[in-house]
Design brief:
Radius of gyration: 41 Å
Number of helices: 12
Strand content: 5-15%
Number of domains: 2
CATH class of the largest domain: Mainly Alpha
Order of helices and strands: HHHHEEHHHHHEEHHH
Strand order of the largest sheet: 1-2-3-4
Structural class: alpha+beta
CATH superfamily of the largest domain: Outer membrane efflux proteins (OEP)
Length: 461
Amino acid sequence: MTKNNFWALCGDSQSADQPCSMTSRIGYLRYLLVLPFLAILPVVADSTKLTLQDAISKAISEDEWLASSLHREEALRALSQGATALPDPKVNLGLLNMPTDSFDFNQEAMTQLSFSISQTFPAGDTLRLMAEKYSVQGDQLPLERDNRRAILTMEVSKLWLTAYQYEQSIKLVLRNKKLFEQLHDVVESSYSSAYGAAKQQDLVRSELELIKLDHRLAELEQGKRSALFKLSQYIQSSSSVEASTPIGLAINSVESLSLSAAAMQIPPSEVLMRRLSQHPMVQMVEARSSIAQVDKALAEQKYEPQWGISLGYGYRGDDLSGNSRADLASLVASVSLPIFSSRNQDAQVKAAALKVEAIVSEKQLVLNELRSKYRTLSSDIELLQGRVELFQRQLIPSYEQSAQTTLNAYTSNDGFFTEVVQARIAILNAQIELLAIRVERLKRLSELNYVLASTAEEVSK
């Protein structure tokens, strides 16, 4: 605030060239120090801001991994459709037993033109099981995409909230900087006035606080830019995230829009485990278990014989006397005898069975980890909410009361300007710390939402 504005508040009877009374100056000083803390209105998001939902939607829609996963699933579905086809038959055409002394086709009775076709049949249900394996592998990929979307939602939420925290901290510091600029003008005016009570050290201290606030703003801006650049790894559009991008919505609006974990009370163990069993990570383990069971069945098919059949026809020419010779037909069946390879087959079946058991144990480990995370995050969220309420109900009001007390003492020439400044800085620090606690709680909620994530199939139900 300029000096002219300051003098104008002294009263209509005072001119800009005539100093106002000390009482008026002190009253205005108190007004400057108290006014910014009377009400902090929520910041309303406009259409140009990158909201949390926008960031999540962009990250999911632009994720190359999800697009790649869709192509991999289509490839596995195609392999599943073609896996039941038999191997291609083999056709043989040959000239047999041609005499090398004359190369006369009719000289020897054994000479013939042979044509044969053969077909092999894989052992047991190998073809059906291979088709089933590709199908189960394809079923696993939608679960991986569900997990990827949940991870993207969590990671983008945390980065967005970090940038949001820096931006809101910048706004708090800017409000206080404006306050200290006005305070500096008042102290400077009081110091230069013949009737002023301000001391030179008060003027120096006010200038120092302005410099410190500028440095603090630079640090916060650096933190915000770093968070936005990290966010840009998930949002590929060059115009979506810039270093100066405003981050959406006030903190109350953020809490209301996204984070779906409502009940923090830990449910009974069996209810929680049923809920966690729908997590994509658990479903992915079950899909891997199904694949391992198919692999075990495939290994067992090697005990079954592999069949083959061959049909042949041999054409013979007339003998040397001109008499015709009978043509020849043949039918051959073949079967493999898994005798010498039984040791290898036993080992493969045993390994496949052990893999199934290992995946079953892995499922329980994933469930235990999710349950532990749920309990830890629920406890953290509850404790952080308690800290928020402590700040709102006790700490910040106490800081404000202390600031008012130091201001009253200073206006009564019974205190020091340094104490007034320190009290106001303490309020700013408390507000920034409260913001940090609330944002940290929201980050814990985003992590809890991931723990409670369900597959798309369960969500549709």
